[in-house]
Amino acid sequence: MRFLFFGLLVAALVGWLLTYQRQRWRIRALERSNEEIKIEENLVFDFLHGLGEAFHDVIRPHDLHRLIVESSVRILDAHGGALYLVDRTGTKLIPAFLSKGCPPLVDVPDRVLQQAVVTPVALDSYLRSHQINADEGLVGRVWKQGEAVHLADLADAPELSKLRETALGTASVMATPLLYGRQNLGVLALANGPMSADFTPSDFVIFKSISEQSAFALYNAIIYSEANEKKRLDHDLQIARDIQRILLPSKPPPIDGFDIAGVNFAARQVSGDYFDYIKVDEDRLGVVIADVSGKGVPASLIMAICRSVLRAEARLGQSPAEVLRKVNRQLYPDIKEDMFISMAYVILDHKN
Known about the structure:
50% of the residues lie in helices and 18% in strands. The protein is an alpha+beta fold. Helix 1 (2-54) runs antiparallel to helix 2 (61-75) and helix 2 (61-75) runs antiparallel to helix 7 (201-247). The radius of gyration is 37 Å and the shape is elongated.
């Protein structure tokens, strides 16, 4: 009876020790998982903080593109990443940034692969210059269809599967369109090589969250750039307006027997309206008023040319009809068919 009791006690003790050890293992596993989650959260927060800091000062597009790709690679511990953005025509994707060592995410011609054996830079040059059409390969399909994909089996991406067993191969890939509102700005993609672990479903969830923030940042960068460009354009137009104001007379010359006044108010920053007083000789003063068809910069440029030609011809002392005939002959070849100038020119003889 005593041995039975002792045996049960030992068995209970062993069971308790095993249970205690299992619980310790589980606690350690949870602690490691918690640490990994905290590290991942810190990386994501760093990424978001980096995006915010990027707009505190003027950021170059290339720096923003690099921040998005390199942060995505670091957060998800990927082999490499690439960012493709829509070109100005909206018909193709152009490579905006590819991380160092990123596996090819597009179909690479055999001739380029052969060149890369001798000259590795040949592959890098091709990947950084190759533009992607809609529905071309995995990246093109993601852009066209507007849906994120997570592939471990590359059967749906034959352009990638053919390189799978090589040093350039991709074993796992995630790609997502960069959507903001109704605009599809491009594609963000991450890849792992054959020696790296496949992306997990949780990686895919984080990746899609990163892409949403990236799309928001890229859209803001576009708006910011357009606003700066408009600001520069407004500044240039203000300078053009000041120059045009200098080209027009500030006050009329005193002429016995005549009261003359002139003023110009442009519909926009600059205009094609023109008036002038031109001294022909000691006794005669030419007065001109003109209007170039259209408004804005094109009309103001034609006006400046017209002023120069008219002043050169008027000082030769010819009749108004002859002056305008010569001005028309010189200006006609340089004016578009849908533009014209309405002009009246008179000569005031204040002596006679």
